[in-house]
Amino acid sequence: MTVVALAGGVGAARLLRGLVQVVAPSDVTAVVNTGDDTELHGLHISPDLDTVCYTLAGRNDESRGWGLRHETWTAMDALEELGGETWFRLGDSDLATHLYRTQRMSEGAPLSTVTAEIAERMGVAVRLLPMTDEPVRTWLRLVSDQREVPFQDYFVRLRHSVAVSAVRFDGADRAAPAPGVVEAIDGAEVVVISPSNPVVSIGPILAMPAITAALRRRRDQVVAVSPLVGGAALKGPADRLLVELGEEASSAGVARRYTEVCGTLVIDERDRADEESVAALGMRCVVAPTVMSGPGEAAALAKVALEAGRTHGSGKRP
After folding, report:
1. Which residue segment(s) compose the domain that 305 sits in?
2. Closest Cα to residue 225, out of 32, 8, 1, 67?
3. pLDDT digits (tens, 9 = 90+) for 215-255
């Protein structure tokens, strides 16, 4: 079967690791958020693309949750001695990825082409597509002084510990999807929205009109996995962002983000009480264990999501 996963960050990477255990990796396309992309030290950095790629290549650092295993920090240590900016830590091996990406893009290669090159050389068979080859950037307005900061300043420099009043995705309304994105969604048997932050990881993807239109056409085959367990995020600020933006940190709060484009929401067993509120929003609700503590749990969750998409899309009851 052919599967498309909308992806952003660690939760998506873990689900993708489960998907490739139950579906041939070459039949999986990951459409990855690039709203987190940034330029630092003259380099184009794509954190979500790299997290997904490193995880599928089996080279990610599980303890940190980002970057590469067996990393060294010689360049950052030397930069710190010189008084340079080191709040965004880049390991020596990770730097090679950004150097290569920046070089190829300076030569005129689009981000999608460079991403495919990096994935192939790391042995990743999943088709990795950035959501767009054009610049889209996530900005967050801080409650404290009402200034806007780019995503990495909020997430890394400020450690996502500050309240926000608004989020916007600069450029999303006019950016074209990367080549193959819409075609992959149109041709997939199931589309899975990964358990990523619905505001800042999946939000930029859904802010692109052509992608939203494609998902709307396939709504019955689109399955989202909630990133909340017991009404809280396992990692990151998803629950706090929902509340700060006037929504609720619950399965229903996640469902409201996806109602237009998604027919089924998978929620954790600890959120079973939310089943009726999700159904009241016009979405089918599936209750299952969603904590991916290891490869086995990730594969089991992937099976649940795929079966929900196939069953709902065919009009059958599970």
Report:
1. 3-134+177-231+250-314
2. 8
3. 999 999 999 999 999 999 998 999 999 999 999 999 999 99
Of 263, 257, 253, the closest CA to residue 222 belongs to: 263
Report CA-CA distances (Å) from 253 to 68, 73, 202, 242, 313.
33, 40, 14, 7, 23
CATH value at residue 224 = 3.40.50.10680
Task: Give per-residue pLDDT as tens, 48-91.
Answer: 999 999 999 999 998 888 899 999 999 999 999 999 999 999 99
Q: Is residue 155 part of a domain?
A: no
Sequence-separated (6 or more) residues with CB below 8 Å from residue 229: 268, 270, 271, 290, 291
Contact 165, 148 (CB under 8 A): no
The tens digit of pLDDT for each residue in 3-47 reads: 999 999 899 999 999 999 999 999 999 999 999 999 999 999 999
What CA–CA distance (Å, rounded) separates 281 from 84? 50
How far apart, in whole angstroms, are the C-alpha atoms of residue 292 and residue 26?
Answer: 22
Dihedral angle computed from the Cα positions of residues 38, 43, 48 and 52, in that order, rounded to the nearest 10 degrees? 180
Quick check: 188 and 31 in contact, CB under 8 A? no
Indicate the Cα dihedral angle 54, 60, 62, 66, nearest 10°: -70
Q: What is the CA radius of gyration of the chain?
A: 19
Residue 100 lies in a domain: yes
> For the segment 161-205, what is each residue's pLDDT rounded down to a tens digit?
999 999 999 999 999 999 999 999 999 999 999 999 999 999 999
Q: How many structural domains compose the chain? A: 1
Give the residue from 291, 317, 288 showing the smallest Cα distance to 305.
Answer: 288
Tokens 């990825």, residue?
97
- Residue 147 corresponds to which tokens in the numbers above? 């200034």
Q: Is residue 26 part of a domain?
A: yes
Q: DSSP E strands: which ranges in the chain?
A: 3-7, 28-32, 38-40, 43-45, 127-130, 137-142, 148-150, 164-170, 190-193, 222-225, 228-229, 232-233, 264-267, 284-287
pLDDT tens track for 109-137 = 999 999 999 999 999 999 999 999 999 99
